[in-house]
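Could you please review the protein record set out just below?
***
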Amino acid sequence: MLERIRNQITDLRKEEERRFTYELECSFDKEHSIEYSEWINTIRDISDRDKIKIYLVSEGEDTLHLDENMEDEYIQFLDSLDDDEIVDVNLTIDKKIVNGYLSIYCFEKFAEDINSLPIDKALNVFSGFMKEAGNVMVFELFDCRDIFYTKTMFFLAAGSRTLSSTFDRTKRLSECRENAYFYNQDNYELLPDDFKIEVGYEGNPLGELFLKLETILASCLLASNSFIQDGNLKLQIMGQRSVEYNDALENIQGNNNLYKIYDWMYSGGNIIDKAIIARNIICLHCKYEVLLNIGSEVMSSIQTNYNLYLKDNVTQYLELKNKVAEFISDIVSRTGEYATEMLDKFKANLLAIFGFLFSVILANIVSDQPLDNIFTRDITIISEIVLGASFVYLFISYLQSKCELQKVYDSYDKLKDSYREVLTEEDIRECFQNDTIKTEMEEEINKSIRRYLVAWGVFLVILLIAVEYMSNAPVILPRIKLLWGMIKKH
């Protein structure tokens, strides 16, 4: 941005850029004075988020606060100078974060300032950036065309199109809190992903620092317990054995393998299971090397063990699904039996009624004094009592079937509920086929039972009417006619 005036500066005494301030101290002589238009263009080049202050001080300590619409004052100021007089320039830009954007006017000096900080202070700085920005932080570079970015921090040339990020930082922070106890997480609300450079370039002045911060944070979130205190990192990993690590933050070297393990652990699947396996393997490997120096073979061992764990779980899962399938098949078979039991009872009742009628007819045939009409009043009453008992038996059989079927349905629901602690809702829906088998089974059984009930009831009504018509002393029909006559009179 300052290229407009840099070539006309005779002495650049100071150029610094800190997090929220850019400062420039330089000078020029009257003979090589800077055009007012160059100053105005410089003022207009800065972001609307920021405020610029330019002070010109002569050797006689005359001061001009340079701003827009001050061309006459600037010309008068220059005219008041001696021919060889030097003018000191103090330029300050106050910066602030707005909508996740922060201006960088001299990336080299900004990087120098960040790199000069102790590691714990650097963590504090970036934690402050991310807390104020939210999910994504964009650093607008006004003097540099080289860009780089992580999942959450973008160092882009000013005016560039903003890159989108699909990384859910809030969710990942929550998962890390649930699965690792990082004592300082409220102070250093950061993730290794904030510093894992996805696109970069050779000679990046922040590259080494970012790798170190990525390593420190990855180790903290892999450990069971961790905290940063007085410039030291303390870790404890509890697996098959307990491993502890304690070293100065400044001594830690970047190790990309730790990020790979962290990223694998928190990306998909069951984080708790992954954490247990990862910590067990790390503890075993730390018999032979320092925790933060572990190599790529550790990641390979972790993945191998996790795959074996999944394979064992898959076997158990398939066995579980087979048991569910067997149970459902058994239920279908039992409900079918209850439906056929209803049919068997109907047939048995039918045989009993016909057997009774046949015995009455046979008794009349072999009698010494056979009757012209075997359906006397006594036989009619007995026949109708038998038919009434059949109606009662029909009702009892129906209730019994409903009760037995309800027990089957209840056992189905209890089995389904018992697997909620073992399987996910999606697995349960898949195993039980979203209850379609139960629903279809209920509909089919209910249809069958209704058919048998209707057939049984119609048959008994027909027999009752036949007995009444064939009887020489009907019991029910006269009473029906009498009742009908009374109704008609009224």
